[in-house]
Design brief:
Length: 439
Amino acid sequence: MKKRKMQKMQKVLTLYLTAMLSLSMTACGQKENTGKNLLPSKEADGKVVILFSPMEKTEPDAENVARSASDVTVAMAEERLGVTVAYNTYTAQDHQDKTYDEVALDRVRHNVDDLYLLNPDVILQLGEEGLLEDLSDLDSAGNLREIIRTANTVDGKLVAIPQEVVAYGLFVNQDMFDACELELPETPEEFLECCRVFQENGIETPVGANRWWLETFVFAQAYADLYNGGNTEAEIAALNSGESRYSDYMRPGFEFLQEMIDHGYIDAKKAAVSEAIEAEGPDFLAQKTPIVMAYWGAANAETAYGNPDFHLQVIGFPSSRGQMPVVSVTGLAVGTGAEHKEDALRTLDVMVSDEALLAYAQINQVISPSRNVEVECIPALQPLNEKIQENIYVLGSNVGMKVEQWGNTCRIVRMLLEGASVDACMAEFDRLQDEALGR
């Protein structure tokens, strides 16, 4: 029965890929819209659902695999429901612009769009404000992995559903490691030793970094035991009661980052103002930098690291328990005040159905949020995938924690990059915890 169901899903995927190919061939003769709003809603006729999402900045002729995968699921919803999905997009041009998260918060609060792709910290904030619809009754919600429900349930309501589980890892140039006779690092100490050896061999800055993703090192070291030691619920309860302090968990990771800064293994000033992939990507692809950090999909995307001229490996971050993936869950959500709310809910239900998620996962080669969908990954991702399949990972976002994790840790890491001491960063975690507990 399961095999027959998967064959049916494969057939659906083939049909939709054929349809998308026809659409792309038709679009070749049209003028490309390079602005932030790809298709303003006023240009669509009939039933309309407005989707707000980020648009990765790309070279004009580069293939954006993630966008293509999402477009296939949108096409399914449009055909099945007779709706038109209109895109509004935003991408910050540099560190002085408003972030995507800031813009998304404002748009949801003012009911600008219907359907939103949101990061975990925004999901938590808007969920607590009661501005996101409860998706628990959608047919597709019944197929979700338990980790997805946990990560996206706020005040008992499932407020977002992703199209992929976003796993972060270290992207390493295996050829450069081999040239320096280095094993891939398992622990923080081994990682620092690799960086030292790279510098001795003329690589001035071994780790390419940006202002968004250094917190992955912190999460791996802070929560390796919490999520993999068999006592997760009790440890989180102690944090939520104030019996334990977030600063005690976070300190080793921040001291690790400070050591990297002190030795010049990362360029803190550059990282503090750099956008993800754009800053460190060129040096990594040119084999000037052996290590960067990125999300799973970047290994498949031509616009990121999907076609390097070297042996790419994606591994977990160094921790006391070895290489540790960091998992964060973005999600599609519907605003409670959305103008086209019912159509948006139906559209979302199709976009995250097993048929749609199979199409998405096969195109983008990612981990699916549905327990019914599995796909093969490329060899470069196999080390990371093996850990996740063994349930070895830490969560970078968990709405069960009273202090929001992903956004706050990212912000406090930027404080460190800008010159704040580790003690000052820990004091900020203490302040956040006391504030959340009403102290």
